Target: N-acetyltransferase domain-containing protein
Amino acid sequence: MIKNTNGSNFSYLRNWLNTDLDFLAESFRDPLIAQSFTDLPSHCGQEEVSRFVSNTLRLIEKESAFHLAIVNGKEIPIGGVSVHNIIKGHKAEIGFWLDKDCRRNGIGQSAVRLLLNHYKSLFHLQKFVAYTLTDNFRAIALLEIIGFKRE
Model:
């Protein structure tokens, strides 16, 4: 668990749990979220979501990727962040998404900053890379606000 201590409106980042399957299945039906997950079918059900959670836990054990839930003060997941394709001492890729009711209020920005700070120090990373669709203007704006540059 990575606690948020900056006072924004989410509490912490944590591993996905089997109790999160319904939330994930519903979230992955949102076209804006689904387009970010190339490894999930467009209409995924409990079985695919369960595999996603199991796979994220295996990747964490190998320290090759970390997919984490963004959890609010009521202990409810409201989105996710990830760091993956980690090359320790060099760089990693990140990803993020939020439930549609939680967008545009600083949660994504705070969660991504927390993710970057934690994994930068943990793996001595020099650079983070994020890929997004060219028409995902909210994600592009968030990345630019926190210091990412287009390449």
About this structure: The mean pLDDT is 85. The chain is about 35% helix and 25% strand. The longest strand covers residues 77-87. The beta strands are 2-3, 12-15, 65-71, 77-87, 91-98, 127-130.
